[in-house]
Amino acid sequence: MLKQLTFWFDQYESALAWIGTVSVLMFIFSLLMLPWLLSKIPVDYFKCHKPVTTWKMLLLPRNLLRNLLGLPVLIAGIIMLVLPGQGLLTVFLGLAIMQFPGKYALERWVISRRGVLTTINWIRGKAGVANLEF
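^ thats the sequence. predicted structure below, dont judge the formating
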């Protein structure tokens, strides 16, 4: 059994090195960018939010650009759920960037998970920004 495991690690050594490198880079990126991005969310985001109601709105250039920017952040957050990093915070941030029907309900679900809103408000407090009103 140990011989097979050693063979497997030898066979996929470069892939494992790449996965480890990407994991470390995503962790560093999340530590550097998340505080700044979370401080940019308006205090009344959850009180005065206008949700996207139709799929046609996705084709507007502004919304298309937001989705193209938010999708990699969302994917990185999903990956960070199992790799080192701030997974739920990054998922929330990716959702906040994007525009699609049902996004508002999904954001409220993510932020209602235990500790997410508390952590976001703690990070915002460290940046000198008021807490999110939920």
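Residues 43 and 57 are 25 Å apart (CA to CA).
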